[in-house]
Amino acid sequence: MSKYMLIMRGTDETNAAMMASIDEMMAATGRFIEDMMKAEVLVAAEGLDDPGRGVVVDFSGEAPVVTDGPYGETRELFGGYFLLDVASKQEAVEWARRVPVVRGSKIEVRRVAEADEVPQDNERIVKERAEREGNGRI
């Protein structure tokens, strides 16, 4: 089994269309979540707050620059995600095809890297692992 994140991506237009039918969208999303729970593939699902309440920390220059939202230059915004534990990328894609969205939305499917894909002898990784073991969080 591998974990895949289904990342909901929208635009101002798709977000407005979704908000115009929010009750229907919430009901459809609830049914979708129930289906994933019954199939025992759902690990987590979260929606993100309005982008106007967020900030961007931009590292393009010498010093980081913090800009309050909304972000006029952004064409797409992440609206939330579903984290699934499935047998294959194809299965993740099949679930992504079922996400209730409005026309024009996109779902990005990305595999979550496993711990063994990160160099385990890295000093920070070794320290973090020891702290988790000491706290009983493994």
Walk me through what this model shows.
A hairpin with a 6-residue loop joins strand 3 (55-58) and strand 4 (65-68). The strands form two sheets. The chain has a four-stranded antiparallel sheet. A two-stranded antiparallel ribbon has the order 3-4. The radius of gyration is 18 Å and the shape is globular. With 138 residues, the chain is an alpha+beta fold. It has helices spanning 12-20, 22-38, 89-96, 123-134; strands at 2-10, 42-47, 55-58, 65-68, 77-86, 106-111.
Quick gist of this model?
The chain is α+β, with helices and mostly antiparallel strands.
Give a topology summary.
Blueprint: E1 2-10, H1 12-20, H2 22-38, E2 42-47, E3 55-58, E4 65-68, E5 77-86, H3 89-96, E6 106-111, H4 123-134
Antiparallel strand pairs: 1-5, 1-6, 2-5, 3-4
Radius of gyration: 18 Å
Instruction: Identify low-pLDDT runs.
Output: none
Number of helices: 4
Average of the residue pLDDT scores: 88
Order of strands, widest sheet = 2-5-1-6
Task: Report the major sheet.
Answer: 4 strands, antiparallel
Computed structural class: alpha+beta
Global geometry: globular
| Topology, number of strands | 6
Order of helices and strands: EHHEEEEHEH
The share of residues in helices is: 25-40%
Taken as a percent bin, the fraction of beta residues is: 25-35%
Distance between the termini: 19 Å
